[in-house]
Amino acid sequence: MTANTKVVHAGMLLTEAGQAPKQQQSVLIEGERIKAVSSGFIDPPAGAGVVDLRDKFVLPGLIDCHVHLMAQFGPKIRMQIVEDSDPKTGFNAAHFAGLTLAAGFTTVRDVGAIGNPEVIFALRDSIAERKVAGPRVLCVGAIISPTGGHGQTYGYRQDVCACVQSASGTCDGADDCRRAVRRQVSHGADAIKFVATGGVLSDIKAGIDQQFTREEIQAIIDTAHALGRRVAAHAHGTAGINAALEAGVDSIEHGSFIDERSIELFLKNGAFHVPTIIAGVTALEMAKGGGMSAAQAAKAQLVGVKIKEALARSYKAGVNIAFGTDMGVGPHGQNAREFRYMAEAGMTASDAIKAATVTAAKLLNLSDEIGTIAAGKSADIVAVDKSPLDDITILEHMRFVMARGEVYRQSGSAT
Ligand SMILES: [Zn+2]
């Protein structure tokens, strides 16, 4: 036993979403890994500490498959983009990572940087080295976007746009798209994200329909897969969603206008839907509050309510649903608010938790590491006061967070 051995006494323990929670369980942790799960409150080995969660409901650390740690949308963002240096953006991102971890999210996938992607790569690595408190980060680097596409920056003078956007993801034509994907991988990207359609927050009147050609989409996906990277497609409009699914994309982000054909393709390929309902809700609120340009507001009105309907459809049809929030659009640290919208779309509490644990781990290709509380897995463990299976909104009130064996939050408990 090392000095890093701990025993968690859990009043209720949900080891895996979909299974029944058990009363009075112990989780033995050595270093950053779970060593064993056993019934009853076992005595700690000599020299080991006890984490007393006997009055808590304990579950696996939550996973958010769609965040943007380098930004926080709000009235000042357009000035911030041109004012903040890369180091300032990095410190802000570290702050947002801390808020996300405190909210019980022990793993996130960052799906695109505004500005210099080196910031997110550095943050990912510093968190992994335990120099900064934050969730495990997987990141895509720059968003793969065509010229004039959703992944670019607009509305400033041209030379300012050019200097604040991450141009390494911009590409046109199949060869150029292959190059852009390879460039992200060479810079350190864990996954690839491309814009299959227009998006709400790009300040350009280009709609929300397909942006890359089929040939370009195929080139992006095939190149990423050849390099062992999963591919996420930002997609609202139907044609773009289906073109990405037909080309073998791993996940559709948002998926506002999915149709019958999309559902067929999701099921056939085992692809994942990452709905991010809260982004639609937040964008709609901002549009109503006057915090958007005319081009952005028009698109917000179009997709704001559609995402929830899309989840209702995909969920009913049995599509893999992975949890994502698009935080950076909404406020970092409020990721768990997505659960209430998932419930409104018809998901059971158990399935919503599954989306944020087991299924998210599968999408991120980390099922051996995270998503359940089991021997050999990373010790990513969170706790709340009551069972989220009875009231999913309790996950908005996180009480305890352990990530990779280290306790980052403990409130409302005796120890
Ligand atoms: Zn996003």
Q: Your description of this structure?
A:
By secondary structure, the chain is an alpha/beta fold. The protein folds into two domains: 5-61 and 372-410, Roll (Urease, subunit C, domain 1), CATH 2.30.40.10; 62-363, TIM Barrel (Alpha-Beta Barrel), CATH 3.20.20.140. Helices cover 34% and strands 21% of the residues. The strands form three sheets. The chain has a seven-stranded mixed beta sheet with strand order 3-2-1-4-13-14-15, with no helix packed on it. A five-stranded parallel beta sheet has the order 8-9-10-11-12. Strand 8, helix 6 and strand 9 form a beta-alpha-beta unit. Helix 2 (86-102) packs across helix 3. The relative contact order is 0.16. It binds zinc ion (ZN). Zinc ion binds at residues 66, 68, 111, 326.
Annotate the secondary structure layout:
Blueprint lengths: L4 E9 L8 E9 L2 E7 L9 E12 L1 E6 L9 H7 L2 H17 L2 E6 L7 H11 L7 E4 L18 H7 L9 H14 L3 E5 L18 H13 L3 E6 L2 H9 L4 E4 L5 H10 L2 E3 L2 H12 L5 H10 L2 H12 L2 E2 L16 H7 L4 H7 L2 H6 L17 E4 L15 E4 L2 E5 L5
Parallel strand pairs: 1-4, 5-6, 6-7, 8-9, 9-10, 10-11, 11-12
Antiparallel strand pairs: 1-2, 2-3, 4-13, 13-14, 14-15
The structure holds zinc ion.
The site of zinc ion has 4 residues, from loops.
The whole-angstrom Rg is 21 Å
Second-tier CATH architecture of the largest domain: Alpha-Beta Barrel
| Mean of all residue-level pLDDT scores | 92
Q: Bound compounds, please?
A: zinc ion
Main-sheet strand order equals 3-2-1-4-13-14-15
Beta strand %: 15-25%
Within CATH, the superfamily of the largest domain carries the name Metal-dependent hydrolases
Please count the helical segments.
14
Number of strands: 15
Please estimate the helix content: 25-40%
The termini sit apart by 22 Å
How many domain units?
2
- SSE order, as H and E? EEEEEHHEHEHHEHEHEHEHHHEHHHEEE
Overall SS class: alpha/beta
The CATH topology label of the largest domain is TIM Barrel
CATH class of the largest domain: Alpha Beta
Largest sheet: 7 strands, mixed
Unreliable residue runs:
none
Gross morphology: globular
